[in-house]
Design goal:
This protein is mainly α. The protein is built from three helices and two strands, in the order H-H-E-H-E.
Length: 62
């Protein structure tokens, strides 16, 4: 599910959100969200960490 390219993209997303004052609490959530964004997948979830990723990064949630 992950590799160097996805990890770098996740770190970039983390920095983008931190610049807006948002901290994602779980690095696993960040990896999952990044995977879904990069691969254009919808994510079925129940975790508040994904809401800012939807709002600012384009994560598609079900």
């Amino acid at each position: 599910m992950t590799g160097p390219d996805l990890a770098i993209q996740a770190a970039q997303f983390y920095r983008q959100l931190r610049a807006k004052g948002i901290t994602i609490r779980s690095s696993i959530d960040l990896i999952i969200g990044t995977y879904c964004i990069v691969n254009d997948h919808e994510l079925l979830q129940r975790d508040r960490d994904f809401a800012p990723m939807q709002r600012f990064l384009g994560l598609r949630l079900v």
